[in-house]
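Example with several molecule types.
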Amino acid sequence: MSLTLFIAQLLNGLQFGVLLFLLAAGLTLVFGIMSFINLAHGSLYMVGAYAAAVAGAKTGSFAVAVAAALIAGVAVGALLERLAASRLYRRDHLDHVLATFGLVMFFNELARMIWGPQPIFISLPESLSGTVALLGFSYPSYRFLIIATGLAVAMASQWLIRRTRWGMLIRAGSSNPDMVSTLGVNIGLLNAGLFTLGAALAALAGAMAAPILSVQSGMGDGVLITTLVVIVIGGIGSVAGAFCASLLVGVVDTMGRSYLTLLLREVADRDVANAAGPALASMLVYLLMAIVLAWRPQGLFPATGRPS
Amino acid sequence: MTGRGTLPLRAGALVALAAIPLAAMAMGESFYLAFGARVLIYAIAAVGLNIALGFGGMVSLGHALFLGLGMYSVALPAHFGIDSGWIHLALTVASCALAGTLTGWISLRTAGIAFIMITLAFAQMGFFVLVSLKQFGGDDGLAVAAPSNFGRFGLDSPLAVYIAAFAMLLGLLIWTDRLRQSSFGMALRACRQSGRRAASLGIMPRRCLLAAYVLSAVICGIAGLLLANLNAYVSPSTMSWFVSGELIVMVVLGGIGSAFGPAVGALVYLGAEEVLKSMTGHWMAVFGLLIFAMALVGRPAAARLAVDWSRRPRAVGANRRVLSGTTGTAGTERK
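Resulting structure tokens for the full complex:
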């Protein structure tokens, strides 16, 4: 295993991690503050990817594709908030699971009705399809763009939550929503804004992932589960925790897939290693989660009890 | 609404279920027999899940794991030429009890949202292990080489599976109805409502909930064993989180926490699925919206359909309020 390959894999892990963070940031805020379980968050990611694919194919511009994804995310997110989430906040978790489970079925089938079961691919503009030379090896510039976007969103959300009035209200709302509304804050509007912001981030993740993955019905389901793992590891409701856990999960998953089989060959029989390696690699993040939880049930960076 | 009136209904439902194989054979429609067997099997799984979800208030989004373990407990030995049903059954019970204890022990360190997520993640773990085991078919699944053979009785035809599932479900329904009112069942329901208060009565909430979780895991595993024999084929897709969601919908549809409700829910769910499938290829869009509407309008409204069937005798005050409730929250007040 050469060093450049190792660094390239590390960057791949980082890139997967920031994509996870885009999904996890919105989901964990909705979780932590409204304590609303939104299984349909993956559908918002899918909506973003399809919107980007359609707009990108029409105009050929990647910027337009991202903008379309954001608009679609905000529109669908606001609609969902209005129709579903706002009515379910105060119900118990089982209702959240049921309602959003139904929505996942609906969105997946809707995508299949409109675009068919075949995956669609979108191509990158020439300016982004090149590579960047770095320390003696080259790495796709588009993946650098994803990493940069993710880091920018992470910094922006940290600023939003720590430094702005809105962020203060979000933090206050997470520990005592009744008190916040008694102070004259429209908590309904706050929740709606938060939900819509989360939806926009999910759609952005979908748009960023669209050129490197295939856009198809059900694409949000798998990544939703990984995002849930991220949130549980990071600590529910904590954006900083979600960020650290995203990078951790992204890197562990990518590295596991590329190196675990090789590592096992060092200690075990070749056939055994070839069989066990991929199996172990695909469950590595879940193992990580189980270990973290057995050690710290609240996650690594729990949000409750102190400003996050 | 209580007691007396429901007995003829229950008896009628049982007679109808028992008559399905006869009718199917008379009409020469083997489809109905297989469909009936599938309903019975999912009913067993739903009744099993209900012990955790309904009695214990544990919203597990990972019970498909145990269904899958049961299925592979048949397929893997059969792959190596072992067709003894007793061995299949022993493997099912052992693997589900072990997996249930391990995952339940970790999951019960948390509650609420985290519990849901963790059970989900454990099921995904099992799913990915089976997907990546290429020598056993990977995500293509594996044909069951030989059906489970219990001495003179082999699960080698849909009819045999139907009979086994019918007997199993019947016993299970009577047993869970008793379980609800046993001291264990009472303790469990106390833990659901308030772990702290239960603890002050000398009940150990976590141990109690874990026992219920393991119990429900094993029952789901046995449903998996039957399902593998019915389909003569197993696939990791049975372990996907989607199936766990379906099981929850079945339990809720029929009436959470009642002994008979989940079985009715399984019938309603699979029946509605078949009807919608025959009407449109995009049945999932319609079905998804129906589930969504049910959750939005309130589960009690949907559960009330089944209440007459499943009416719990001697309901405790708190439960009665929930079932006939106007609040829209049933069951899981576990804080």
